């Protein structure tokens, strides 16, 4: 079986989620770098759009299939590599994890996606991104107060954690005041101590591709 | 065991997804109506925000737990009511379904969420909503050409279908030209012939709550 190939960009929080999941499960893969800003955006080239019609990273080629959408990939990895799970066993606990995943991946991140920021324009994009992360984090902080232990849901690392850390990275880029969100900040600090989160950071990206 | 309670609003496409899943699986439930526009938005009241910190519908109270986020709910319903499945068995087929779910729920719908439209303002909101649905549907059409049979993925109804039909309803509200998307339009027509999709439409909402 060929090694999985991940199309990724160092600054893409959606790509980082999948890099964390792959690292957590110890799955070796090959990275292909798609620079979202160089050449007007390499993701918009026909060659890449044929792989991913949304013209976004990440894409994952694995077991002779091409997958897009980070949440779908994490669920797939969980099903075919259940060792070192990223979901609890109890359905009522699983729903808590997926709730946090959805708040981040469906409620917060889509509003500071590159294409949205480009539509908003250079002048307003920092305020826009900050506004939505700030609003989303107020809700997420409330949710996490109810579910968190050492990590987002109890004391085991889950998909929710793989989504949280990249979102906090985005929050810092948009200069969100993290003092407002003590639970989120604590979880982020705790998670960044783990190898899977450290290894999957930007270090996978050659210096000349960092825009 | 008490009957599940769904907090819902007739025009919320996210709520409709869950109504479809519940109807498909034949799960009886009680509806509580949260009018997103009346009284400045009933979802913003403290009483409801305590249930759902994102101040959005739907919320589902089931098995003594309160759940938010439609995708998390559908995954939960699938796990605890696997009869009349909404996911295929093969992981590579499941990933196709979840990919479409994510494109809609993480890529398209979040950009025409009520709070986003309110931020954009009355003057620009129709153009904004139409722009993002149009853009998203171009990608979705490509994806569906690869996966669709009678329904979104092959010939069985899945979560992807439960997300598609409410999104087409939104597209029509924003006057998106559906002639551009023959696959999406065909699937929508086919799905609307099914009882679970018909029953879960707006008919669950008393006339006086339709804004």
TrEMBL record, chains A, B:
Keyword Isomerase assigned: yes
Cofactor(s) required for function per UniProt: glutathione
Compartment(s) where it occurs, according to its Swiss-Prot or TrEMBL record: Cytoplasm
GO molecular function: glutathione transferase activity; maleylacetoacetate isomerase activity
Domain of life: Eukaryota
Catalytic activity: RX + glutathione = an S-substituted glutathione + a halide anion + H(+); 4-maleylacetoacetate = 4-fumarylacetoacetate
InterPro entries, per the entry: Glutathione-S-Trfase_C-like (IPR010987), Glutathione-S-Trfase_C_sf (IPR036282), Glutathione_S-Trfase (IPR040079), Glutathione_S-Trfase_N (IPR004045), GST_C (IPR004046), GST_Zeta (IPR005955), GST_Zeta_C (IPR034330), GST_Zeta_N (IPR034333)
Pathway in which the depicted protein is active: Amino-acid degradation; L-phenylalanine degradation; acetoacetate and fumarate from L-phenylalanine: step 5/6
Protein name per the record: Glutathione S-transferase zeta
């Amino acid at each position: 079986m060929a090694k999985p190939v991940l199309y990724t960009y160092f600054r893409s929080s959606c790509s980082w989620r999948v890099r964390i999941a792959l690292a957590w499960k110890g799955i070796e893969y090959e990275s292909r770098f798609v620079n979202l800003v160089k050449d007007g955006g390499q993701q918009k080239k026909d060659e890449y759009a044929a792989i991913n019609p949304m013209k976004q990273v990440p894409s994952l080629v694995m077991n002779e299939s091409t997958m897009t959408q980070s949440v779908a990939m994490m669920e797939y990895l969980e099903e075919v590599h259940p060792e070192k799970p990223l979901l609890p066993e109890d359905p009522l606990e699983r729903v808590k994890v997926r709730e946090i995943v959805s708040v981040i991946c469906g409620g917060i991140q889509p509003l500071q996606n590159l294409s949205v920021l480009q539509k908003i324009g250079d002048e307003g994009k920092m305020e826009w991104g900050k506004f939505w992360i700030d609003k989303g984090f107020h809700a997420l902080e409330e949710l996490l107060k109810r579910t968190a232990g050492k990590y987002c849901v109890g004391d085991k690392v889950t998909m929710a954690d793989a989504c949280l850390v990249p979102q906090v990275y985005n929050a810092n880029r948009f200069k969100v005041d993290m003092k407002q969100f003590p639970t989120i900040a604590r979880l982020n600090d705790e998670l960044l101590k783990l190898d899977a989160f450290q290894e999957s950071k930007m270090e996978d990206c050659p210096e000349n591709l960092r825009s």
